[in-house]
Write a structure and sequence with these properties.
Largest sheet: 9 strands, mixed
Shape: globular
Mean pLDDT: 81
Structural class: alpha+beta
């Protein structure tokens, strides 16, 4: 484990290289372990310096020469700065090659590269500049975008690398400032309060005995975590603490910098005199996978005496509680002294930088398929044109290669002519459209949290349109539908309900009675009265219950009046608040000197006095265990205290719950309260010492922990039942009603017990009074699961509004078989709502994957706020993270982050719905406009006297300006900002969302309609001007530059008609056709067209680029009535389109057409949903 290859066997979890050293047993997470677990460790060659080793690296501190490094290559990594972080992709010399290499992974760019190559052939019908220059422009634009993004990465890297740190200087014998990028392994650092750590460090000394860190930058969790020095080091630093008068209590650091530096220098000098050595495991990614051992080589006499007094032996084992990862921030403590253990790529932050697989929207898939289809059509037409020319005996021009077969040459020529059927700007404009849609989400004022002022954040814009097609919503409960602000509601002790512990403040909010001005609740008054009377039979039992609440937790207390509790779980803070109000007050948590345990001070009522509870072992709560255990000593007696879910605790108790206890659990659950059960037992001291020795050496596997835990977690005695209220967020019932009315199926996935979850979803209006429910719970086998499914199917048969209630046992069994999974999905789609209880995080994801597997076209959306929701968010098509009180992990894993559940309504019904319609119209329109342009070349190939001779129908430079300069901006503005209905009106008509669910705007019928329309418009735009102005004898065998001027006049008119048809088609599909921005951008399109014509006709560069337009073409078509009649009459064909769209909207109106019609006629509903759970009059 200490270096070598770093390989570990599954059984021992040690290093596979036996010669490196004996392995250290991996300790269970959060277990408090005994002292002096023995390790054989060779002493360093030089006993006068301390060294740190991992792998084949040795870093030391020598008294004469200062810091040493062996091998020297360790410090030479990354040009002598191994801790420098670099996330950039390019350097200046490699920028362009690497960017181009990445760009050509996109098939479309390979396609245009092929076109750019064949256009260079001597027989190409187009000038290479008209094709190659636009393509190079697109590549350069993307490369510059990559360079800008890389510049931003470099700026962020510099901000990280140049941050200051305090590092020990062996020459000055003091701490001096250094840059993060200059920190090396083996350096000793001083970290101040609110400072981030520049590397993974080992805690050598913590002011006050323990350090508290915020790991929100690493794992997203907002609670503070405790870190401490190794046992032998805390024993030594006790000497220094006594000199400085520290008592080990937790207080905020208020010391001045000068005083801190003086004290830290004393502590560092004391540490260096001990000559300690440290061995560490090879760097690994797991956050809790940090092991090692420390040995004092030259302890001072005072240190030796302290070690003998505490019976500490060496080497002393290390675990993750002794380390602080890079990026964590020091909190609630003046300073710590640390030893740099891992730097740069070996830190936990860098080892956990792996990116999850990118999600791709279904519209992106459809776009790729559409492009592939167009390329296939182009291929078919080119083969047709080549064979037709060959059969027709068309002769090749003189500049064509005689050695090449005629069909091959014709095939290449028509590929060059028609290559723009695939738009060169397609993907660029697509990215711009999505970027605009994402920015609109970020800037929406109706999704700004009124409490924090934080707006919604589209962390990726690639999936915006999928939010307009959602079929299933999977939602967490706690913190997502509820506030996750826990208030202790009630408790049952000895079968007696103690009453309500909540009081109502003037603002109507529930409180726990601990704040100034809060009145005493009935429950608090009752338990205080019981504990104040020694003669009351329930006095001791009541005190013991609240004492269990006050010691069975991992909460830190900050001294003050009143004291402030900070813990990883809101439940635990609520328990301590309730115990404080009842008179059992948690006052201090102190680290035991030279030990890994805690000393908890609890002040009881006058009848009980002050108690000291020494925690010797803690078995943490996990989603699988669903309970937490602490084992400690009080009054020379060892106690085991366990709290957990009632269904988990029942088998662990020595007898079944009494009828009164079951009644209390049932009544609390029906009120929507969360219940936890406390149970205890006493342990034999001898057995506990033997058990703790085995536990400290146990493997980290869940099986080993479960086996050892089972030895103490049995034959428990019930201490009491607690109930906690987690109230609903504002506007949740109204939001869920709107989501259901939009045709979306809604599932709640939670780990709570069934009764609690059902009551919560009833209060959310997910389950209504008239809904028929089918319950599939308490399953014991696969056969029973199938039987429950069949009964539920019969129960819900013919029911329009049905709901399902599932639990974790049923889900576990039913997903084991393909038949059960299929039956569950069929039952799910026949019901409108479902609540799944007692689920693990992986079971949540499996249910999402079940829907995705059986409904390939359906879109799933998952929403949650905690780390246990991450797998569910990543498994769904779209993941929505809520900024809650359980950290930022859900937000970090999400696609869109919001602050309140009710913001899901505007996110789906407004932004998602519009994004789907806009993107669908965009895809169809982009392909439509290029087919319209290409139809001129197709028609001219059949129309000219030398059919399929391979001549251009339009001026090629105008064709190059077509995709970006002329028609690029209108589609961005018209679709990017198109407004069909105001947001407040959309929420009155949630049924308009069904357009996305039913894929009304993009399906085979719609796509074929657009293609046929493009063929029609392209043919009309070419044939009317060409037949009106002249005949088909314009062409010359010498090439298009020798064609009569009438041909180019007709060609320019036809190109003008193409732009007119395209712009008017876009205008017809716009729901804001008379908006100023729409009118201006349409006018700008015509302005750019005319400007291009004038530049090509009358400027010297234009004449050189397009010489056949310089001979009376452009000026004539806009001045002579013969040509103006064509320009005026041809667009009249668009009246047929307008009539067809009007008839279709009248005869077969969509939900959006109906809503717009009622809104225009003033028939909107009287009340509207304002996003805050209330209603307002609609004007």
């Amino acid at each position: 484990l200490f270096g070598g290859c770093g390989a570990r066997t599954r059984k021992t979890r040690g290093c596979a290289c036996d010669e490196v050293g004996p392995p250290i047993a991996r300790r269970p997470p959060r277990a408090l372990r005994p002292n002096g677990a023995g390790l054989d460790m060779a002493a360093p060659a030089d006993g006068g310096h301390a060294f740190i080793t991992f792998g084949d690296r040795v870093l030391g501190w020598a008294a004469a020469s200062g810091r040493q490094c062996h091998p020297q290559e360790l410090d030479k990594k990354n040009r002598g700065q191994p801790n420098r972080i670099s996330t950039t992709r390019f350097s200046l010399p490699t920028w362009l090659p690497k960017s181009l290499f990445v760009q050509f992974h996109r098939v479309a760019n390979v396609y245009f590269l092929f076109v750019s190559i064949i256009v260079l052939l001597p027989f190409s019908p187009m000038m290479w500049q008209s094709t190659v220059i636009p393509f190079c422009g697109v590549l350069l634009w993307t490369a510059l975008k990559d360079l800008y993004e890389d510049f931003r990465r470099r700026r962020d890297d510099d901000a990280e690398n140049l941050r200051p740190a305090w590092r020990w200087d062996f020459v000055r014998k003091a701490f001096v400032k250094a840059r993060w990028c200059d920190v090396l392994c083996g350096d000793m650092l001083l970290s101040l309060q609110d400072d981030a750590l520049p590397a993974d460090v080992l805690v050598l000394y913590a002011y006050g005995g323990q350090a508290y860190i915020s790991t929100v930058n690493l794992d997203g969790e907002t609670n503070f975590k405790e870190r401490r020095a190794a046992n032998v080091l805390t024993a030594i630093t006790e000497i220094l603490d006594l000199e400085m008068g520290l008592d080990g209590s937790v207080t905020r650091g208020t010391k001045g910098l000068t005083e801190i530096l003086e004290q830290a220098t004393k502590a560092a000098t004391l540490l260096l005199r001990q000559g300690f050595s440290v061995r560490l495991a090879a760097p690994r990614a797991a956050l809790t996978d940090m092991d090692g051992a420390v040995t004092l080589q030259t302890p001072t006499p005072e240190a030796s005496a302290a070690l003998r007094k505490l019976n500490l032996t060496m080497p002393c084992p290390l675990n993750y509680e002794n380390f602080i990862p890079r990026g964590c921030v020091l909190r609630n403590i003046a300073y710590t002294i640390c030893l740099v253990s891992y730097v740069g790529p070996d830190t936990k932050t860098r080892l956990n930088c792996a990116q999850t697989g990118a999600k791709m929207s279904n519209m992106q898939v459809y776009l790729n398929r559409g492009v592939q289809g167009l390329v296939c059509c182009l291929l078919i037409f080119n083969v047709y044109a080549a064979l037709s020319a060959h059969i027709g005996g068309v002769e090749n021009p003189e500049n064509w290669p005689s050695s090449w077969p005629t069909p091959v040459v014709r095939f290449i020529v028509y590929w060059v002519i028609l290559y723009q059927i695939v738009p060169i700007s397609l993907y660029v404009v697509f990215e711009i459209i999505k970027l605009l849609l994402g920015l609109q989400i970020n800037r929406d004022p109706q999704m700004v949290d009124p409490k924090t002022g934080v707006a919604a954040l589209a962390r990726t814009a690639d999936l915006v349109e999928e939010m307009g097609q959602v079929n299933f919503v999977f939602s967490d409960k706690t913190g997502t539908l509820t506030e996750n602000e826990m208030v202790f509601a009630s408790c049952s002790i000895g079968g007696q309900d103690m009453g309500d512990f909540r009081v109502k403040r003037k603002d109507g909010s529930a409180a726990d009675g601990t704040q100034p001005g809060d009145a005493l609740a009935p429950g608090i008054e009752r338990v205080r009265a019981i504990m104040a009377n020694k003669d009351d039979p329930a006095c001791q039992e009541t005190f013991w219950f609240f004492l269990c609440m006050a010691v069975c937790h991992s909460v830190q207390v900050e001294q003050g009046d009143p004291p402030k509790f900070a813990g990883s779980s809101p439940d635990e803070v609520a328990f301590l608040d309730a115990a404080e109000a009842a008179g059992v007050q948690f006052r201090a948590r102190k680290r035991l000197p030279g030990k890994s345990g805690w000393s908890l001070t609890v002040k009881g009522p006058e009848t009980q006095g002050e108690k000291t509870f020494e925690i010797l072992c803690e078995i943490a709560f996990t989603s699988d265990r669903k309970r937490m255990t602490v084992i400690g000593k009080m009054d020379e007696q060892v106690y085991c205290i366990v709290k957990g879910a009632d269904n988990v605790m029942q088998p662990l108790c020595c007898k079944r719950y009494s009828e009164a206890d079951n009644e209390a659990l049932s009544s609390y659950s029906k009120l929507g309260l969360r219940t936890l059960v406390f149970a205890t037992k006493t342990l034999n001291a001898g057995f506990f010492e033997q058990w703790l020795s085995r536990y400290s050496k146990a493997d980290v596997s869940d099986e080993a922990i479960a086996a050892l835990s089972a030895e103490v977690e049995h034959s428990l005695t019930l201490a009491g039942v607690s109930a906690i209220e987690d109230k609903l967020q504002q506007g949740v019932p109204q939001a869920i009603c709107l989501i259901k009315q939009a045709g979306i199926r809604f599932w709640v996935l939670t780990g709570d017990k069934t009764e609690t979850a059902v009551e919560i979803v009833r209060s959310c209006k997910l389950f209504t009074e008239n809904m028929v429910l089918a319950s599939l719970t308490n399953c014991a086998s696969q056969e029973q699961a199938i039987e429950l499914l069949e009964k539920a199917k019969q129960h819900l048969e013919g029911v329009k509004d049905g709901g399902l209630v599932l639990d974790g046992t049923f889900v576990g069994f039913v997903l084991m078989t393909e038949r059960g999974a299929a039956m569950l999905y069929e039952l799910a789609i026949s019901s409108s709502s479902c609540v799944c209880c007692r689920l693990s995080p992986q079971q949540k994801r499996k249910l999402v994957e079940l829907v995705r597997r059986f409904n390939v076209r359906g879109i799933t959306l998952a929403i949650g706020d905690g780390a246990n929701d991450v797998s569910m968010l990543q498994g769904a098509h779209v993941g929505i993270g809520i900024r809650g009180k359980e950290g930022n992990q859900a937000v970090q894993a999400s696609d869109v982050a919001i602050s309140q559940f009710r913001f899901l309504v505007p996110l789906l019904l407004c932004h998602g719905r519009r994004a789907y319609r806009r993107v669908a119209v965009f895809l169809c329109f982009m392909l439509y406009k290029h087919i319209v342009l290409s139809m001129g070349d197709v028609m001219w190939a059949h129309q000219c006297s030398r059919r399929f001779s391979g001549q251009n129908a339009y001026p090629e430079w105008m064709g190059s300006a077509f995709p970006a300069l002329i028609t690029g901006l209108p589609v961005i503005v018209a679709l990017g900002y198109d407004q069909d209905l105001p947001d407040e009106i959309v929420q009155l008509y949630p049924e308009v969302y069904t357009e996305g669910i039913n894929r009304l705007h993009f399906n085979p019928r719609v796509f074929v309609t657009w293609v046929l329309t493009a063929l029609w418009h392209g043919s009309v735009a070419w044939l009317v001007p060409s037949l009106w102005v002249g005949n088909n004898s314009w062409t010359s065998h010498l090439g298009p530059e020798y064609a009569p001027v009438e041909f180019w006049r007709a060609s320019c008119i036809s190109f003008l008609m193409v732009i007119t048809f395209i712009n008017q088609r876009l205008w017809m599909y716009s729901y804001s056709p008379f908006a100023l921005r729409t009118v201006l951008v349409m006018a700008l399109s015509y302005f750019m067209l005319i400007a291009c014509m004038l530049c090509l006709a009358f400027t010297p560069p234009g004449k050189a680029m397009q010489p056949h337009l310089a001979t009376g073409v452009v000026d004539v078509i806009f001045s002579e009535w013969k040509y103006l009649k064509v320009i005026i009459v041809t667009p009249l064909f668009l009246l047929l389109d307008a009539l067809a769209l009007f008839c279709y909207a009248t005869l077969r109106p969509s939900p959006l057409d109906i809503a717009r019609g009622q809104w225009r006629r003033g028939l909107a509903k009287v009340e509207s949903y304002d996003g805050r759970g209330s209603t307002a009059a609609a004007s």
